[in-house]
Every structure is written in structure tokens, then in C-alpha cells.
Amino acid sequence: ADNASAAGLLRVVSALRQVDSQCDLRVLGYPEWQDSQSGSRSQFAKANTYIYCSYFYQSGSARAQRFAQIYRRYFRKDFAMGYPAMAPYGFDLGYTMLKGLMHYGRAYAGQSVYAAPLQSTLQFQRQDRGGGLVNHKMLFIHYKPTGGVELIERK
């Protein structure tokens, strides 16, 4: 899951494609690969890579840019980027929880609540009686060979 193994695997896939351009390969990567040091998005796209995770921040989207602008205005600095980016993560958690509590009250656990996420798709379910809530949503980020990025949401 480390940066060196990601880069090595992407090199192997590239070499295999040079030997046989018709081979249909896909790579399943770790969430840590989203870190910019693991490889460029173009390398992921060339390798037809899917990365599983519970978060993906599209900093170029209009909504994300607006969030960053408002954050900068209130805190007089940019939020720290990481994986996950904690400011959007906190927003997503708070917004989803408040919206769920507003609509369902104590019966919130397990309810489907759509709160347009900045980064993290969330659906909380109670694990056991008296226990806490756990997120049961997952994303697959597909870096397409055509250069696009597709987000596939799974439960």
C-alpha cells in the first residue's frame, strides 16, 4: 500500500501493455494512493485504476472551491490538504448528522439521508444495541484510460 509499491505496480502494468496492447488489465488500489506522492492521475488513468475509499475531494468542483473560499474568509488561511482533507470531512460529518437528526431524531441510525457531500459519502448504521454508528458507504474512484474520473458509490 506504500508509495513505492504503487509506483512499481503501475510500471509493471505499463510494461505489460507495451507487450500486448490488447490485454484488458485493471488495477485496484489502496486509499493511500490518492496521496499525490503515490503517482500522478495520468499514471492511474493509463493503468485503468480503481481506488476504494470512503472519501474523494474534487478540489476543482465549483462547490469545493466555494467551500475553500468561505473557509479562507472565516479562518484567514487555507485548510490543510491531506487524505482525507479534514475540513471538508468535518463539514460532511456535521451536515449529514444534523440533517439526519433533524429529519429522524433518535431513529436516525440506518436511515438514508442525502446530504450532498464535499468529500465523504456517508450512511451511518448502528453496529449493535447501545453501540455507536459506523459509516457503511464506500466509493470506488475510477481513473479512466480516457482521462476522466468516475465516482462509483457502493453500500
Unreliably modeled segments? none
Q: Using the alpha-carbon principal axes, give the shape.
A: globular
- Helix-and-strand structural type: alpha+beta
End-to-end Cα distance: 23 Å
* Average pLDDT taken over every residue: 80
Q: List the helices and strands in order.
A: HEHEHHEEEE
> Total helix count?
4
Number-wise, the strands total 6
Strand order of the largest sheet: 1-2-5-6
How does this model look, in words?
This protein is α+β, with helices and mostly antiparallel strands. It has four helices and six strands, in the order αβαβααββββ. It has helices at 3-19, 41-46, 62-75, 86-104; strands spanning 27-29, 49-53, 124-126, 133-135, 138-143, 149-154. Strands 1-2-5-6 form a four-stranded mixed β-sheet. Strand 5 and strand 6 (149-154) form a beta hairpin. The radius of gyration is 18 Å and the shape is globular. The mean pLDDT is 80.
